[in-house]
Task: structure prediction
Amino acid sequence: MWPVCKKELRQFFSSLTGYIAIIFFLLLTGAILFILPDNILDFGYATLDKFFQIAPWILLVLIPAITMRSFSEEFKTGTFEILQTMPITRWQLVSGKYFAALLVVLIALLPTLVYPVSLQQLSPEGGIDTGGTAGSYIGLVLLSACFVAIGICSSSLTTNAVAAFIAGAFLCIVVYGAFTAISRIPAFEGGADYYLEMLGIDFHYRSLSRGVVDTRDVIYFASVIVLFLVITHRNLVKR
Result:
């Protein structure tokens, strides 16, 4: 698994594409938080709620862009057949590519830890809600892990990287926010709306953002990750 992971990381950072993706994420979040109108410095109190609200929407585009070539490029160039001759199982191949993409996303998220530290220093009194911020970061990491699994799965469906990106972004949008949107339809009020909302990532992400790490939320994220990785494995078996 680790040789595949290291190969993917080397390939990702061997060109400017990897660095541009990370820099784009950091510049966009930094501009929204500190430069553009209605930024967090205008709130009058220390909070990173805006960052944790916009970050998932940026990641559901960024992560499919990172994962779109994972398998589609292997299929297109014919190197997937070479990988099959190597002494690694399909699960090791899937896991290696998954953890490599996840590490890239974590590298992109790591510099954002400057945001809570900066707000803590700028706050004249009270400071930032450390419990809520820690819970939000845990939720953001788990959400990213789900998006990576979805992106890897989408890449295993096609030989076209662009099609993999579109499919990955669409699936991320559906799993993240579609269930919440459907639950707000008046026909589901007072009954199925709560259970429909629970099917989406947004519900469990907001739950962790309150600063309480619930086992049910962690199990949900783990289940989504395993589901899409199993589908990815089955797609490889079919080939």
User: Anything to note?
Assistant: Residues 130-155 form the longest helix (26 residues). The two ends are 20 Å apart (CA to CA). Residues 2-238 form one domain.
